[in-house]
Automatic annotation (TrEMBL):
Pfam families registered for this protein in UniProt: GATase1_like
Superkingdom assignment: Bacteria
Name of the protein in question: Cytoplasmic protein
InterPro entries, alphabetized: Class_I_gatase-like, GATase1-like
Putative glutamine amidotransferase domain sequence ranges: 3-247
Species assigned in the record: Actinomadura darangshiensis
Amino acid sequence: MSRVLIAGESWVTQSTHIKGVDSFTTSSYVVGVEPLRRALESRGHQVRHLPAHLVPAQFPADADALAAYDVVVLSDIGANSLQLAPEVFERAVPGADRLGALRGWVGDGGGLLMVGGYLSFTGFEAKAAFRNTVLHEVLPVELLPEDDRVELPAGACAAVTAADHPALGGVTGEWPPLLGYNRVLPRPGTEVLATLGSDPLVAVAPYGSGRSAVFTSDCSPHWAPTPFCEEWDGYARVFGGLVEWLAR
């Protein structure tokens, strides 16, 4: 059993309704982590989810806090949310270098997985911004300086390039289509285990005494539609395999 922290995979949506000369707004809170949480828990892992709105205040600030976990998963949560704790952003008080602490923790033996989304890697309008941080060097891939999203509205299936790698969890057969991903470039020494087109979908590499991995598409809608994240038994194998490889 591994102890897994998943940060991100939730959001608040606000809609404006206009009816003639009148208008009003409604808000909703959406949690997208459930397919990933269920998949990992089904394989015996202990999962803590830190929703996106709590990341700025509660993400582990140092090696001691990170030591509570074997694997950290960042999914659809931008670098600003990890860097800008409330005391830093709102009160201009120096705080912890949490991305620096995460880099050091991986280098000392931790496992890091980044999952794709509009606020992963470089992200929508480059707002995820991990390329500009110290965490960039931990990832097994090079990030683009511009918006890196590739939308695949007709869907595309992954091509597995290393089916026997343990990080894929022994999954076999064709993968269901995905609807998009973040484009990245492999670094020297990176093992690319699956691709979408010519771009990495799953890639892994060592970092210091630890390990890092990426899944450049999503773990929930919209890039990961229901046939992929809810109906395919390979979903738990792939994400379980990644977590188990990262946690050794």
